[in-house]
């Protein structure tokens, strides 16, 4: 009696809770959709505050700097202070910089969480389009959307400045608009849903402008547009409208930036794809990171199983999850069953999904295969991973017997959500200001400062810090900031050029390494002098421009033969040596001397004509100088 009576209220309370959620948030009417979206946005903002302050590697390296540089016209002043990422389209970085510099940290973090939570409505809309109307879509769509948002890659970047989650929103919106356009075309029987295809193209162009890796999804959606949507003429027309508007949207949003980079360097994607553009300031090679790609035919055929067992194989931050091996096995079983039962069951899953399922499946498969062949980096897989629970649910519902299909699919998705690794990549648990106000770099003038930075990754524990040096440049001069491995030069040739440039122009900055174990190429060169003519570095001799950078391998000690009158150390136990023949108004000799050691810097204040230029280096923290255009370390 007592045990039965005690256990009875619990199911009743659970049923009452489910009925209340169904009454307020199930998609029975438009008001419930709005209420569910607002509730998830509120939860997303609160989750962002719970996760802590964003401090990921990319934020320290270039997100803040790119936003600042775009707003303050640093393209012709700085040379790769944030490595090759300095020349990415700063569309999203401007948003991040504006939020972090204009709002208090909690409010900025809440806004980013609410923004990323918009994926809920987009995923629910896609599920609504795909599921068969005979199913209880009003209840299934929001739950499947929540299951998608519990993916490992999405949660690891939730409310952060890494562009994968933010750029996934327009991709999902484009997919939803394309599915709706195909449904309208099939219902009408003729004509092309031009407005909906144009909306899909505009969103896809926005996604491409925000992050070029979304080109994979543009390709996948173009193929999916041909897979469904009425007659062949309608499909081709829809794909044509999608392609044209995508190109136009990308040209409008990214064209001005790419044109500016092209004018400055001779390569709109500088320094990438330089084997085609042959820009003089970078090597004529095509940059690519192939270390993440599968090796051998066995890995190519079983890659989802492989990277699920070894998550560090597809990213520096390993994220554990089981949705990919389950989806891989369900896909193989579905292909086998379809091949064996095709004569008896021509309609594969008509009792579970609508005709839009074909387009979604084509989009997913093409996007995944393109990702595996080109990148194989997990954070570029955010969009397919958001859709994976929906495909897994459909596959299980079709494969399993009817009496166990629904509960098995439900509990499988719950297990995937609970198992997803919620690693808080690049987060700080302690509260604090976000962005430039936290960096202590205020009052830095827009011109007159050129910084050479060299060394290890920003904020990498156990690695040597990079010394940061600023050099005053006369107004109107082509000052540059140099950092990174994307401008390697032969050491001997670079030293010769640096010496010649130093004798020709005063104030040359050069860097040298000692061949440390990291064997990273150091590059630093800056010529002070007035530009005579168009272009940021016009009027300088051939050996005195940014191409005459002095580089050497190693991540050890680095020295800059700067005039001692131009730099004063604070909080540092080393005194800077005055190179012979170097001083204010006197040319540097070009001789490289060991000076500040990377890792010994605790604080450095640069004194120039514009006044004190603080370059903060906090013990235990990276030198976040990128927010004010002073390079990134």
From TrEMBL:
Keyword Cell cycle tagged: no
Biased composition (Basic residues): 571-580
Protein name as annotated: DUF2029 domain-containing protein
UniProt KW keywords: Membrane, Transmembrane, Transmembrane helix
Annotated region (Disordered), positions in chain: 545-595
Biased composition, class Low complexity, residue ranges: 585-595
Source species: Xanthomonas graminis pv. phlei
Regions that span the bilayer: 33-52, 107-128, 140-156, 215-232, 239-259, 322-340, 352-371
Keyword field contains Transmembrane: yes
């Amino acid at each position: 009696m007592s045990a039965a009576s005690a256990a009875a209220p619990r199911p009743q309370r659970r049923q009452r809770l489910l009925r209340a959620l169904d009454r307020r948030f199930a998609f029975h009417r438009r008001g419930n959709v709005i209420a569910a979206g607002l509730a998830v946005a509120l939860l997303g903002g609160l989750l962002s505050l719970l996760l802590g302050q964003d401090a990921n590697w990319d934020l320290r390296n270039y997100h803040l700097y790119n936003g600042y540089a775009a707003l303050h016209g640093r393209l012709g002043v700085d040379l790769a202070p944030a490595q090759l990422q300095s020349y990415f389209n700063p569309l999203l970085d401007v948003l991040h910089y504006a939020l972090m510099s204009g709002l208090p940290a909690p409010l900025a973090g809440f806004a980013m969480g609410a923004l990323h939570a918009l994926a809920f409505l987009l995923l629910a809309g896609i599920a609504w389009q795909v599921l068969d109307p005979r199913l209880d879509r009003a209840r299934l769509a929001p739950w499947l959307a929540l299951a998608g948002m519990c993916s490992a890659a999405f949660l690891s970047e939730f409310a952060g400045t890494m562009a994968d989650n933010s750029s996934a929103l327009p991709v999902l919106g484009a997919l939803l608009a394309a599915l709706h356009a195909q449904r309208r075309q099939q219902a009408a029987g003729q004509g092309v849903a031009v407005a909906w295809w144009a909306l899909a193209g505009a969103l896809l162009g926005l996604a491409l402008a925000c992050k070029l890796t979304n080109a994979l999804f543009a390709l996948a959606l173009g193929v999916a547009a041909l897979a469904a949507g009425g007659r062949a003429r309608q499909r081709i027309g829809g794909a044509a409208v999608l392609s044209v508007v995508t190109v136009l949207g990308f040209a409008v949003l990214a064209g001005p930036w790419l044109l500016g980079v092209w004018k400055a360097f001779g390569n709109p994607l500088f320094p990438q794809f330089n084997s085609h553009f042959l820009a003089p300031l970078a090597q004529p090679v095509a940059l690519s990171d192939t270390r993440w790609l599968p090796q051998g035919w066995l890995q190519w055929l079983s890659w989802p199983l492989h990277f699920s067992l070894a998550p560090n194989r597809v990213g520096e931050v390993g994220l554990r999850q089981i949705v990919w091996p389950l989806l891989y096995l369900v896909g193989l079983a579905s292909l086998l069953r379809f091949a064996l039962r095709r004569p008896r069951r021509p309609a594969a899953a008509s009792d579970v999904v609508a005709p839009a399922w074909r387009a979604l499946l084509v989009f997913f498969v093409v996007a995944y295969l393109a990702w595996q062949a080109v990148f194989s980096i997990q954070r570029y897989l955010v969009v397919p991973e958001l859709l994976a629970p929906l495909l897994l649910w459909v596959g299980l519902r079709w494969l399993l017997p009817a009496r166990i299909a629904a509960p098995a699919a439900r509990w499988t998705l719950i297990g995937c959500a609970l198992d997803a690794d919620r690693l808080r990549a690049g987060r700080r648990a302690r509260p604090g200001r976000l962005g430039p106000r936290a960096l202590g770099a205020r009052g830095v003038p827009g011109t007159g400062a050129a910084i050479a930075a060299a060394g290890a990754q920003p904020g990498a524990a156990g690695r040597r810090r990079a010394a940061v040096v600023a050099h005053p440049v006369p107004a109107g001069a082509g000052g540059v900031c140099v950092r990174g491995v994307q401008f390697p030069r032969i050491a001997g040739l670079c030293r010769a050029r640096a010496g010649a440039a130093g004798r020709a122009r005063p104030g040359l900055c050069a860097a040298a390494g000692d061949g440390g174990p990291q064997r990273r190429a150091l590059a630093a060169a800056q010529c002070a002098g007035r530009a005579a003519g168009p272009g940021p570095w016009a009027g300088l001799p051939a050996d005195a421009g940014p191409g005459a950078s002095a580089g050497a391998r190693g991540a050890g000690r680095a020295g800059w033969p700067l005039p001692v009158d131009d730099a004063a150390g604070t909080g540092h136990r080393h005194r800077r040596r005055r190179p012979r023949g170097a001083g204010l108004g006197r040319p540097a000799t070009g001789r490289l001397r060991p000076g500040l050691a990377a890792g010994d810097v605790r604080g450095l204040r640069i004194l120039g004509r514009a006044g004190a230029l603080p370059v903060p280096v906090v013990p235990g923290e990276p030198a976040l100088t990128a927010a004010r255009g002073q390079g990134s370390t």
